[in-house]
Amino acid sequence: MASAAPPLGPQLGQRGLNVANFCKEFNKETGHFKQGVPLPTRISVKPDRTYDLEICSPTTAWLLKQAAGIGRGRASNDEIVGKLTVKHLYEIAKVKSRDKALQHVPLENICRNLIKTCRTLGIEVQYHDLDPVELKEFLVARKEKVDAQLKELADKKAAKMLRTT
Amino acid sequence: MFNRSLASVVNVQVRSVSSKYPRPTPRHFKRRWFEAALKPELPPTVVTCIPPGLVKKEHTEKSREYSDVELALSNLVRNWMVKEEFQVMAVCQFLPVPGRTLWFAKNQLRSKNIEFRSYGNKIMKKVFENTPMSSLDTVFVGSNAILLAKDVSAIKTILQETDKLNWLEPLALMVKDRIIDMPEARQLAKLTSLEDLRAHTVQILGQQVAQVSISLDTATRHLPSLLDTYTADQQKNE
């Protein structure tokens, strides 16, 4: 949901756009999305203060993380944070293929890129369907691990705040 | 006293100083003193003088060699080109262009069944090595890209599309096993379809055959009259 508050308002104002109108149009175009979905947007401002608005589908990383049911990617190289099947990737690729930048790109290439992103995020891609029992066990174990990691981070932060020297 | 001074110099050495600044010459006397003190402990440095030509020769020889990755890539490209059965290939001069523009242009070309590839000249020369296409090596100088299409009628599309893009200039075209220069390609592109050319060839060949039969027919038609004339002349003389 776009609003005229910083950082968007001042940035658009600097370029001479009517911020209120822009927000109205953006919210109208993205009304069918849930709040909090990151939508990559490209605005090209023309000299006569009109603009082209290109709203892409949600980011690949966000879609993959949502599909895998995880909140954060891997923190170390050998960490596996989630599991997905090729069917999930196919569906995500179909969503992404509607983007302007991915028009006429073969679905196979998009799927390959998705697999690369999965690797970056630490999501394991498998050919066969996921076993629900196994997945549940994995997710529970993973949640415990993430909680421990987050707690450690919070402790570190608190220690840093308390440090006087 | 020496130890104390050396300690201070060592401290100076440990300090991290950017290597981006030029070292003062001559070096500070403390530094020279330090180096002189350290010299007996350090291994002797051997200064060798390599003639500049030799360095260049080594460099060029090294750049001509193919690494395993390059060989694998060239094999991959060759196999892909054979598998996809491309019939038309245009070698183009590829000028620098923003990434986003290039990406959209590639997609646009793909929508018209033209594949844009830019692997580098070294790889392309290796791909065409020991094939009749190795005569294209002379074109692979500077920054090049290739456009590939599966249909012969794509010559026209390639020329139309490259005319639109000011950063892509076709240098030579290869259609099946023939290399075509640009003026010839432009002439071919003017035809509505390459079927016209085929029809034209058939027509020319048909004309030749017809001409031969007419010529033979004329001779056979003239032969009786000639013989008649000859016999009449003979009879008159007798």
Automatic annotation (TrEMBL), chain A:
Among SMART domains, the record links this protein to: RL11
Which domain of life does the protein's organism represent? Eukaryota
GO MF term (any one): structural constituent of ribosome
Record key words, sorted: Ribonucleoprotein, Ribosomal protein
Where is the Large ribosomal subunit protein uL11 C-terminal domain positioned along the sequence?
Answer: 57-125
Stretches assigned to the Large ribosomal subunit protein uL11 N-terminal domain: 2-51
State any GO BP term from the record.
Answer: translation
SUPFAM superfamilies the record matches = Ribosomal L11/L12e N-terminal domain, Ribosomal protein L11, C-terminal domain
Cellular component, GO, one term: mitochondrial large ribosomal subunit
Quaternary structure, from the entry: Component of the mitochondrial ribosome large subunit (39S) which comprises a 16S rRNA and about 50 distinct proteins.
Membership in a protein family: Belongs to the universal ribosomal protein uL11 family.
Question: What's the name of the protein?
Answer: Large ribosomal subunit protein uL11m
Q: Which organism is it from?
A: Caenorhabditis japonica
TrEMBL record, chain B:
Q: Which SUPFAM superfamilies match?
A: Ribosomal protein L10-like
Which Gene3D superfamilies does the entry mention?
3.30.70.1730
Keywords for this protein:
Ribonucleoprotein, Ribosomal protein
UniProt keyword annotation of Ribonucleoprotein present = yes
Which Pfam families does UniProt cross-reference here? Ribosomal_L10
Gene Ontology terms: cellular component: ribonucleoprotein complex; ribosome
Subunit organization: Component of the mitochondrial ribosome large subunit (39S) which comprises a 16S rRNA and about 50 distinct proteins.
Q: Which family does it belong to?
A: Belongs to the universal ribosomal protein uL10 family.
The record's PANTHER family line, in alphabetical order, gives: 39S RIBOSOMAL PROTEIN L10, MITOCHONDRIAL
What is the official name of this protein in its record? Answer: Large ribosomal subunit protein uL10m
Organism placement in taxonomy: Eukaryota, Metazoa, Ecdysozoa, Nematoda, Chromadorea
